Amino acid sequence: VQLQASGGGLVQAGASLRLSCSAPGTTYRSYAVAWFRQAPGKEREFVAGISWNGALTYYADSEKGRFTISRENKVYLQIDSLKPEDTAVYFCAAGKNVVRTVDGYEYWGPGTLVTVSS
């Protein structure tokens, strides 16, 4: 499964972005999908996850309310009220279940950069 994240860019604080995760040419409907992010000099951290059928969603405790994960043909991450500290490369990952650790996922995409200016 080759994942591809898109939708990042340079935005001002307070703006919104919607990131997309797709798997062109393959199906990942049977996989749980999660979003992680990695800021410069920091470890990759869990942001949000969604079960294979979209019925269950999970969020990092620190990000509840500003992040919304959903899935249709793609998996989306809506980020509202962006802050400079949200600046990071955002990755999507697929695995059997939603877990909050990096090693719980079999497949990763190359990531999309989100830069938030103050």
Rg measurement, Å: 13 Å
**What is the N-to-C succession of helices and strands?**
EEEEEEEEEEE
* Helical content class: under 10%
The computed structural class is: mainly beta
Summarize model confidence as the mean pLDDT: 94
Which overall shape is indicated by the principal axes computed on the Cα atoms?
A: globular
Query: Count the strands?
Result: 11
In whole angstroms, how far apart are the ends? Answer: 37 Å
* Low-pLDDT windows of residues: none
Largest sheet: 7 strands, mixed
How big a fraction of the residues is strand? Answer: over 45%
Number of helices: 0
Describe the structure using short key phrases.
mainly beta; four-stranded antiparallel β-sheet; globular
